[in-house]
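[Q] Does anyone have a clean structure-token version of this?
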Amino acid sequence: MKTTVKGIVVSVPLDGRQTRIAVSQDGIEYRIMPRAAGIDLEDEINVSVEVTGELLEEEDAKYLTVRSYKVLEDDAWDDDNR
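[A] Here you go.
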């Protein structure tokens, strides 16, 4: 199912699907599959992003194969540094 998620890129413990990062949105972690555009997200830890891709839901986790993403502006950072 195609899904769009906005959240923060976080590091997570390696699991059976070899995921190392996730996008955290409202307390839910969407583990990023290490393929396609998801590989590029490994360089974006602690960054706000919007990701779009195919969602796979399993009993214990949600996995996202990222097709595209964009880094979101951090308005608080902009206001503090003007």
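[Q] Thanks! Anything notable?
[A] The radius of gyration is 13 Å.
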